[in-house]
Sequence to fold (321 residues):
Amino acid sequence: MSMSDQTLNNTFIVVGSGSIGNRHYKNLSNITDNVIQVPWRSFSRENFKTLLRSNPNPVIFIATSTKIRMELINLAIEFKAPVYIEKPIAFMQSDLDEIYAAVDSGDLIGCVGFMTRYHPVISKLSEIDMTSLVHANLSIGHDITQWRKNWVFSKSYASDPYGGGVLLDLCHEVDVAHLLFGGLEINSVFSHASKKFSQVDLVTDIQLTASSGARISLLLDYLNPKSTRKYDLLFTNHFYEVNLLSSSIKIFSDEVESFTFIFSRDEMFQLLLSDFLMYIDGKDPVNHLFPSLQKTRATNYLISELWKMRSFSHHIEGIKF
Fold:
């Protein structure tokens, strides 16, 4: 990854020192010395404003928990600093209205960390004619108690009723659904919680209808003992079996076709970062699916509406947090 002369004059400020914040800091450090990391636990608004004033052409990477991002976004607007915001950018419509007022006025430019748009399987699926799609089932899941080493759910952002939960955490699939099928109408959003975390969705089942009439089902869960990320796409005359973890697609019709793609999580981060640097430099990103704030407006509002519409049906027992 290379940087233009103009981008080399930027100072990159990563806010957040979790796994994603650390990854951004590492990737940026590999291409420039002008990178600063600010852990949220030591964040001070006045100190941060001083940092923005004292460093030329600041670019802000926001990798904090969701509910505290608006303060940083507002500072980016104030200083007209480009932003790379981890998903979801917000879950309250009022916050999104504020963000997009700034986007529309030209006071805020940037992108959202929907890096799944850089998965080779998604690139392939985005080229498919979805006209004859009848039903799509997208599922993603993993065991939240076994997520990361030395990681405890009850002490993490994921357990926060405001900004946590599986819908917001795994909202990449919402973005993929909107990207591939478009014009989605919400039919229902059913969630399961636990007694201990009664307003935190551990499993969320989403039912949507695409503008074509196709039915779209999303299942997001924190319980699956085996990590999974699969899509089943039923068309009038064929069927797609998609696995994002193995980076493979099988197409069943008169014959069976199979495709396997080279996949690297690190590469997806790097490709999105490269396109972001080009974008803020006034150049066209390489990937036409680049998740700019402008292009992800509908997805971001959809995520907010889904979060608001969650209906908690019952409490799940026996989870060892």
About this structure: The chain has two domains: 5-114+268-290, 116-263+302-316. Residues 265-280 form the longest helix (16 residues). The two ends are 40 Å apart (CA to CA). Residues 165 and 200 are 5 Å apart (CA to CA).
